[in-house]
Structure formats: C-alpha cells, structure tokens
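Agenda item 2: magnesium ion complex prediction
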Amino acid sequence: MTASVPVVEPDITKLLDHLSRQPALADRLGGTRDLWSAREIGDGNVNHVFVVRGPAGAVCVKHAPPYVRAAGPSWFLTPRRILFEHRALVEHRRHAGPHVPEPLHVDPEEHLLTVEYLAGHSVLRGGLAAGASYPHFAEQAAHYLAHTLFFTSDLALPAGRKRELTSLFETNTAMCQIMEDMVFTEIFLPHRRNRWTSPELDEDVRRLQRDTDLKLAVCRLKQRYLTSRDALLHGDLHTGSIMISDHSLSVIDQEFACYGPMGFDVGTLLAHLLIAYFAAGARGPDQAAQQDWLLSAVEEVWDGFRTRFTELWRDQADGDGYPAALFTGAATAALEAERQRYMGALFTDSLGFCGAEIIRRIVGFARPADFTTITDSAKRAAAERRALTLARALTTTPTDYHSVTDLTAAARDSY
Ligand code: SR1
Ligand code: MG
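Presented output:
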C-alpha cells in the first residue's frame, strides 16, 4: 500500500479553537481559551485522544485521522468512523447510562468527538497489568452488556424501530471489515500484518494455519458476524475500551459499533479477561490472587449478564420478538424454557467468539499490551501457548462447556 494521505499531526491550537467555538464546551472548561491546556492521552490503535483542562473542568476530545493511528497514512481509514461512534454512544447511553460517557459534541467536518472527561478512571487493561482487581467490575460489566444488548434487540424494540436503528449502523463498513479481516481471516494466511512471538510460536502458528477444523469453526463465527442483526454491539469490547475506578465503570471507543451477534461483545470481553489471566501467570506466582480474581470475574460477568438479561426479558419485553400474547396461561412455562435455551445458545456463541478473539490477539496485528509487555519471550510464549490451546478448544468445541465454571476450570487446568 502506498501513502495516499498526509500525516495529520494532532494540532492543539486547532483543537482549542474548535472548543472555543462551542459555547457549551467552553463553559464546561471555564475561563478563557488561553487558560486551557490539552494533552494527548490515547494509546489505542485507531484514533488520537486528548484531555483538555480549563479552570472549571475538563473534557475528552477524540480525533479520527483519515488512517489507522498505529499504522500511519499508508493505511487509509475513513474518518467518518467518528459519526458511528457518536451514534452508538447516544444509543447505548440511553440504556446503560451509568456505564457510557456523555457525548457532548460531534463535528462531522473536523472528525472530532467531545465526551465527558472521566475523572479518577483509568484504562482497565493498564490496571490489570499493574496487578489490580476491582470489586464492582463484574456486576457493572454485566449490567452494561445486558442493557445495551437487550434494549437494542427485537426482544425490546418494535420491528420498525429495530430496522431503523439497524440501518443507521449498516454502513460502518470499513470498521466491520477490519474485524472481518483481522479476527476471522488474516491470521490463517501468510498475511503481512501478522506477528507473533517468534521463533518460539512459529510451529504453533504453522499448525494453526493448517488446522481445517479451526478454520471451519472460525468461518462459521464469521458468518454469524456478517449476517446476524441481534443487537447493537460495541464491536470491540476489550479491556482497553473500559475505563474504571473503584466505584465506576465506563465503556469507551464505540467506533466499531454495528448490529451483530450478541456473543461477539460477550465473548470479546471474556477473551480479554482470560488474556489478562494468562499474562498474569507469566508475571510470576505472586499474581495468583489476581488470577483467581480474574476467573471469578469471568464467572460473575457471565452469570450477572445471564441473570439480568433474563430478568429484562421477563419484565420489559415490549419488542416484536416472542410476542407475550402468544404465551399466556400454561404456555408461560414454555416461554421460560425458551429463555433458558436462548441463553444457552448465546453462551455457546460467546465461547466461540471468545476463542477466536484470543487467537487473533496472539497471531495478528493488534497484539495486546498484556502479552507484549512480558519481556521474557520464553515466558510470553508459554503464556500465549496456554491461551491458544484453550482458545482452540473454545472455538472448535464450544458445546463441551456446559456452564461458565467449565470454562474457568479449563483455564485453571491449563497449568
Ligand atoms: C486497525 S485496528 C486494529 C485493532 O485494534 C482495535 O482495538 C480493534 O480490535 C482492531 O481489530
Ligand atoms: Mg479502540
């Protein structure tokens, strides 16, 4: 690929000019423009993120350059992704308000999105790498997942509204294609973007790329991602997309939002908790308590999600899916059994996506800091190999796991 667009250096002056033109944002910062300061804080693959502080407060401003930040101008990426992120923020905040930051302004020309500044929060991935655990994480993450997925699905929405909402995200094509390529395809080919811990994992990767059962299972999942319109997904729900404090959790970076299979969001989050678990194991035996906490978080996220989602379905199912009028009297028990079946199928889907996400984070372009910061390559490779083995089993034989404790037991048995 050749360079087709210039590097867009983050221009602090333009950023402050932009904020000063928006009275509500200027008020939030307080004082005059010369008293404001901006600092880049983002470390994500895709965009630039700044915190801007003034005498009265702070805001967070995201800039989408016309390329992938981590790759530079040679990899064009539509800056219109910022509009999909804004739409998803608005929609998800309607349903999971405490766990989604307030969008304050979007500028479709400059590709700038301003959201509330999350004081006292840090990126979950960084906290986990530093050995932290968070007492309310699982309950808050489960609430976020249940509310965003349920209330954007056919269980909660009349069909007309659901179709309207689906259509608003159908053209987030470029971002979805990144996932279609990176999660489900490239890692099985000798693609220029692939990287892994080499030479330690060379043979593992060769085996994986010849593994027809695995490739079929991943293609089945890709087909689900391409065709399902279950709910409005975050679309990239890893631990770097979660801001956390001791009391609060907020989900950011919705630029990959699209309608898709619910298991994609659930599975991605479980994958990154397991990645943190295996990475902690490589950092040493003193991480055992955090590893225990991570596995209990896996269990509590799934159990909390399943419980809350099912409650919402019992109490607030105003959508066109499963019309209540069809299940009165003795038939209510059949509907309840159907809810349990639905959640079982969603669990199986989630495990498949969980495995696929773990694999692509070990073999693909976007390797997570959990692993890459392990400087001893032998230890890193050993942790990644354990994760790969579990991930392959999750993806190819997800129905072998009947409950979430089967999953956490398998993670423990990796040692
Ligand atoms: C080009 S972006 C690479 C990856 O980073 C994001 O976090 C997404 O997961 C994407 O796949
Ligand atoms: Mg991101």
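Discussion summary: The mean pLDDT is 96.
Owner for follow-up: CH.
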